């Protein structure tokens, strides 16, 4: 065996043989050093500051924001995914795609909307994405503006965390039962039968609205049983992962109890604006007010979301074709990207079937633009809106709107084969602006071979690229 470390005398005749020497030299730039500011000696090939959002490199793990930009580039459009999904589903045949095709038909039936219903669907999506709205939160915002102390911020944040869990009670309950049911699937039958019985008891308690009983069952029976199973079977795979998912969900369910929310809300009474607004209300009135701020989405929005969720579940489980599974995965990833904490835009999906044509639209709005004014008396920043829509047999369109001081500008990018109609598009857009009581500004329509990206329409998304990376 070669004496690599040279801890003994060299073999006679091999003193000058370099074949056993380490190929690594102190000045080798291919070696990535461990970051140590106190021992900087040379540069290496580290790519911590490299922007790979627009490249074909592997996923970035050194920066959450750079990973978000990569996902935005790869999965930023939902409309393309929906179009591929429905097109593949309607053209598919065979027993393996029967249930998925039925789900697609139900979605198409749910999308037979008139203009009024389409507007309600749009409003429903935006309202469902704005949980902290209404008179209650208006008072809290004003109170925070008048007294922006750290104590008030902490108390309001504590209340918002518990209110969020309180408003998500139905979702949390479904998550609890789903996680326990999945645990039962991966258990041997001699263990799963007991857990199935506990799940049946939990379903009965949740159906009767017995939160205290459900919490007692979860904490004293279900959780210890699942923990003992993982410990006894030494299951460090799916079972332990499900157990780790169940623990924070139970804690969230406990924090969202009406008693905890009321206690956190009464804590805010130590601040004069809140006490002045709600101090005279009884406990029942406060609970009724809190429930009024947790209104579920309207029927059209709920139906669309339920149908898409059902379709996603079936396609991802492998019940559809490979094309349908890929399209559904792309759709779910696109939805997650648009709901990222790094996304500064409000997002809505508007798939519809109108006048005998299928239309798949997405809408992004910079809702905070009007708040970003400069010095006192200066005009507010223009609001920007990007509408991407695909119309059956026509192709994809991108409409970029800007609004400022009752004046609206529009840039429409249409498929190249519709170039002769750009003048008609401009006239129609100007007429629509006038009918809405707005002053039409610069309105242009032009063909485009490539779709407009979000970073082109909203450069503010890239503002964080110059920030310091503090990812751990």
Question: Keyphrases for this structure?
Answer:
alpha+beta; six-stranded mixed β-sheet
Unreliable stretches covering 5 or more consecutive residues: 47-57, 89-96, 466-472
Roughly how many Å is the radius of gyration?
29 Å
The major beta sheet can be summarized as:
6 strands, mixed
How many strands appear in the DSSP assignment? Answer: 6
Question: Largest beta sheet: what is the strand line-up?
Answer: 1-2-3-4-5-6
Element-level helix/strand string = HHHHHHHHHHHHHHHEEEEEHEH
Rounded to the nearest angstrom, the distance between the terminal CA atoms is 42 Å
Helical content (DSSP H or I, runs of 4+): 40-55%
Q: Roughly what fraction of the amino acids lie in strands?
A: 5-15%
What would the average pLDDT be, to the nearest integer?
75
**By helix and strand content, what is the structural category?**
alpha+beta
- Give the count of helical stretches: 17
| Inertia-based shape | globular
Annotate the secondary structure layout:
Layout: H1 64-75, H2 78-91, H3 98-110, H4 115-128, H5 135-146, H6 150-167, H7 169-185, H8 189-207, H9 211-233, H10 238-255, H11 258-267, H12 272-278, H13 283-292, H14 299-316, H15 322-338, E1 346-354, E2 357-365, E3 383-391, E4 395-404, E5 407-414, H16 422-435, E6 439-447, H17 454-457
Parallel strand pairs: 5-6
Antiparallel strand pairs: 1-2, 2-3, 3-4, 4-5
Helix pairs in contact: 1-15, 2-15, 3-14, 5-12, 6-11, 7-8, 7-10, 8-9, 9-10, 14-15
